[in-house]
Amino acid sequence: MALKQFKAESKRLLDLMINSIYTNREIFLREIISNASDAIDKLHFISLTDEGARRDFRILITRDREARTLTVDDNGIGMSAEELESDLGTIAKSGTLDFKQNSTDGNAAEELIGQFGVGFYSCFMVADEVTVISRKYGEEKAHKWVSTGVDGYEITDAERETSGTTVILKLKPDGSGDNYSQYLEEYTIRSLVKHYSDYIRYPIITDVVKYTDEKTEDGKPVTRTEPETLNSMVPIWKRRRSEVKDEEYKDFYMDNFSEGDAPEKIITANMEGSVSFTALLFIPSRPPYDYYTKAYKRGLKLYSSGVLIMDTCEKLLPDWLGFVRGIVDSSDLSLNISREMLQHDRQLSEIAKALEKKLLSELAKWLESDRAGYEKFFSQFGITLKFGAYEGFGMNLNKLKDLLVYKTAKGKTVTLKEYVADMSADQKDIYYASGSDAVSLGSLPQVTAVVAKGYDVLLLTDNVDEFVIKLMNAYDEKPLKSVSSDTLDLSTDEEKSAAEKKTTDNKALLDEVKEILAGKVSEVRLSSMLGEYASGLSAKGELSIEMAKVLASMPGNEKIKAQYVLELNPDHKMFGLLRTLSETDKTKFGRLCVLLYTEAMLTVGIEPENPGEFVKLVNEFIG
After folding, report:
1. How far apart are CA 321 and CA 385, in angstroms?
2. Same domain (yes/no): 473, 500
3. What are the strands, taking DSSP E only, across 305-456?
4. HSE (CB half, 13 Å, CA atoms) of 448?
5. Residues 186 and 286 both lie in one domain
6. Phi, psi of 491 (to 5 degrees)
7. Which among 9, 35, 42, 457 is least surrounded, fewest beta carbons within 10 Å?
8. 53 domain residue, yes or no
9. Co-location of 398 and 321 in the same domain
10. Last-in-domain residue among 438, 460, 482
11. What tens digit of pLDDT does each residue of 350-364 get?
């Protein structure tokens, strides 16, 4: 039979496919196996009503190093001469798509993988010549389709005992850095099947070398070759939760996602809706070594009917759930011609919304049912949820605010809901303090003063904490108030009256201190909340001391600073000394003002501009 030509547009598409569409050559085996699985699916569907179609279905891979051929054989429905002509002779004509459109059983049709009839031609990335021998179920004759690529194809009669299809690839020669011979190696075939086609539901078989206990005369081990099934066939996520032991899930996680640790949480989901899918998700016990770097790839493995489509599909998870690992499998996905991306973002978006809702629900249950376990998780990944709450100016705040936990000055770990539940009747505000660590915050004079009143204080130690609190502003109609705010006042009416009198009596002194510290503080005032401290520092306006520190640490923001308010303790002996020096020694008075300001800075974690000068001042006044 004369060589037939591909249509002109088909030639161009074939050349484009080989050189552009596919990002890596190794997917050719995935495509052939997926087509074989489709063909078996079709015959399996027929066998439900036709006993003659029933058989032990399998996909057989044969390697011939001498002939440099790789063969994939299935015992599925096969193709007629007309189908070889239409499906393989016309690129982008898919028999699978036709079957799906004409099938009266929607569920059976949805299990089929291929839709575009293009993946087959990925073979030409690795092969000089491709031969397809096929016999249609119900027909007596077999036919052979042979092509060397864009030059065209030839169809002739052939022999085959049963229905099914054999694809024979004559591999290209090695050279110029290309190693096509690797596809004749057992290890490579095993790896590719495991990676891309492990969950094809029919056995994928190849001959493998096995070592025996026997030895040759020269002491070498005797080997034998025997067939072995390479794929698992039934995905663990397709099995019922009650049928799978936790140890099996942990082993699966550690084989596929782990750096050596078992997962902290296992979550399964079987969702039905506009897009149906199955998911198996894991929350790690600790972040991967590169989790907080740009190198970390967030996302889930994405499968379509058991065939791996993407190793890390980022669109399935928001950034703030990026620590979740696992897989999603859906037969509803519309794939593009390379099976490597999706045609419609809408489908991914629907799955992502359902996953987010499921994960939020599971985290809430975890918080309620296993507090110790949740707090352990939060210590590792809580900051990710906090950034999620702040993201987009709080667009996810309502979803996440009840999942955030905080340490307190009284040594507790609480949610905002629990803090409010523990508030006494006379407490109107939720108090918090921001800083680098809980120990330092617990010793702040403002914190000790609030605790002395019987109230607890949330200790915010992550950079993002106060930004989230500012966005929230209030919880359950209870305002959130920083203990370092210049508006904080827990005094009684009697105490306020006494404080006002002291402020009036010392107004000239306070003005003089402010003048000495011009450019450093915006206000100087008296405070009854400093306890044993001579001085303290608070902030005026919306920008707190801690927020200013965080912003100033970013490139280009070095000059950002809060409006500092220096607070002086009128009951401390240093205040008495300050008053005396203002009348007797203006030079020393000025140096004491600087000392009190520097001490106040240190209490909120700000290093002195000149540590050496500060040491001299301390020595001067304690000498």
Report:
1. 7
2. no
3. 307-313, 325-329, 406-408, 413-414, 430-434
4. 14
5. no
6. -75, 150
7. 9
8. yes
9. no
10. 482
11. 999 999 999 999 999
